[in-house]
Amino acid sequence: MSHVMNTYARQPVAFVRGEGVWLWDEQGRKYLDALAGIAVNTLGYAHPKLTKALTERIKSGVLHTSNLWRIPDQEAAADRIAEITGLDEVFFCNSGLEANEAAIKIARKYGHDKGIAEPAIIVMEKAFHGRSLATLSATGNRKVQAGFEPLVSGFVRVPLNDLDAVRLVAEHNRNIAAVMIEPIQGEGGINVSRLEYLRDLKALCDKHEWLFISDEIQCGLGRTGKWFVYQHAGFKPDVVPLAKGLASGVPVGACVTGGRANGVFKPGNHGSTFGGNPLAMTAVVATIDIVKEEGLIERAAKTGETIRSEVRKLALPGVTDIRGMGSMIGVELERACGELVLQALQAGLVLNVTADNVVRMLPPLVMSEAEGRQVVERLAPLLKAFLEKRVAA
Ligand SMILES: Cc1ncc(COP(=O)(O)O)c(C=O)c1O
Questions:
Q1: Taking Cα atoms as reference points, which of 86, 122, 80 lies closest to residue 234?
Q2: Which of 29, 93, 155, 251 has the lowest tally of Cβ within 10 angstroms?
Q3: 205-224 burial, b for 16+ CB within 10 Å, e for fewer?
Q4: Which atom of ligand 1 is nearest to the CA of 98?
Q5: Is the C-beta atom of 139 inside 6 A of ligand 1?
Q6: Distance CA 366, CA 43 (A)
Q7: Could you tell me if 310 and 344 are in contact, meaning their C-beta atoms sit under 8 angstroms apart?
Q8: Ligand 1 contact, 182 CB (< 6 A)
């Protein structure tokens, strides 16, 4: 019996080696990876430049110092993040939920600084923000919350892409300090916000002096054809929580601020022992530099579009929607399809199913269009068999 706590329904496979977009299991079987460890492995596996940077960091002997001292790699990473986000200040932590926790604290502190005693944050239905008490309370999925009540208060929920719902809250609730949104919901089923809606939502935030928090933990970092989804909409949010793909596999989180959110945290307001340590920061700097040098944002946009259009060409009845942006891809089926994950593994393909009936693909940004076509070649017979089974039943 394993002593690992049973918090995940795991598939019976262990990947022990990787190169590019390929993984090998303990038996030496080869898999094409269309998931990147759920949007984490930006550079795929064994990227030589990342390996070199991390090896040098390890050889230096300094994996960790402390935020009590200056950390030059942290300063370099913050400079790069400021450049790609267009924002100003970066707080480093170790995961997505921590980045969101920092964002929620900033929103509350911002509210208090404005004289709101009990600040509240508008959040979206079907959103996922993490599994700490505050972030699961912000999450719009009862399954994540059930059993952990009492929830953290101060979240007001509205449907995605519904500006009137937000306006209505604005009319009746004087405690709002911020809006928190995943501009493309990942766990919720690859639900894409309309760009017009995002712009209008930002205008509403400006009108009421609310913070706009864009949780780009899953959708950010080049995956959609720009560094961040808000850049497609053409504005800058006040707070951008990041994690996942930021260090291509080394655990990291970052809460980035600009505009009204700058300077809200003062010394002593927040902290993290590991946050921004030299090991993680080396990986952040290398990841961002490599994405730029190798044109991976453009590649992710093309490969993702190729995957979507190849799936569309299959014209399968029972596929109810094909959506996403760049290499954030959702194929919605007419019924729950969790069994496809194991079937795909057996066919040498790594993917995921979310929101019960959405096949989710988040390939590494290094995936080529030819490899993207191979993803669909492997997926197509599985989809056909799965959907035909229904017709036969
Ligand atoms: C949009 C979003 N926010 C937050 C999180 C939480 O990140 P972590 O699992 O690193 O705590 C996730 C993880 O899936 C996510 O997709």
A1: 86
A2: 29
A3: beeeebbbbbbbbbbbbbbb
A4: 11
A5: no
A6: 6
A7: no
A8: yes
Q: Which residues pair with 256 in a beta bridge?
A: 90, 240
Query: What's the rounded Cα separation, in Å, for the pair 255 and 109?
Result: 15
Q: Is 30 exposed, middle or buried (0-12, 13-18, 19+ CB in 10 A)?
A: exposed
Dihedral angle, C-alpha 308, 313, 316, 319, nearest 10 °: 20
Residue 168 phi, psi dihedral angles, 5° rounding: -65, -45
Q: Is the CB of 245 under 6 A from ligand 1?
A: no
Tell me the pTM: 0.98
User: Is the CB of residue 101 below 6 angstroms from any atom belonging to ligand 1?
Assistant: no
Ligand 1 centroid to Cα of residue 357, in Å, is: 20
CA 346, chain centre distance (Å): 27
pLDDT in tens, 123-141: 999 999 999 999 999 999 9
Amino acid 258: pLDDT: 98
Catalytic, out of 91, 128, 155, 212: 128
Distance from residue 203's CA to the centre of ligand 1 (Å): 26
Nearest Cα residue to 264 out of 72, 68, 88, 95: 88
Interval 76-99: pLDDT, tens: 999 999 999 999 999 999 999 999
> What residues contact residue 198 under an 8 Å CB cut-off, 6+ apart?
181, 183, 229, 230, 233, 235
From the number of C-beta atoms within 10 Å of its C-beta (0-12, 13-18, 19+), residue 257 rates as: buried
Residue 335 one-letter amino acid = R
Residue 37: how many other CB atoms lie within 10 Å: 19
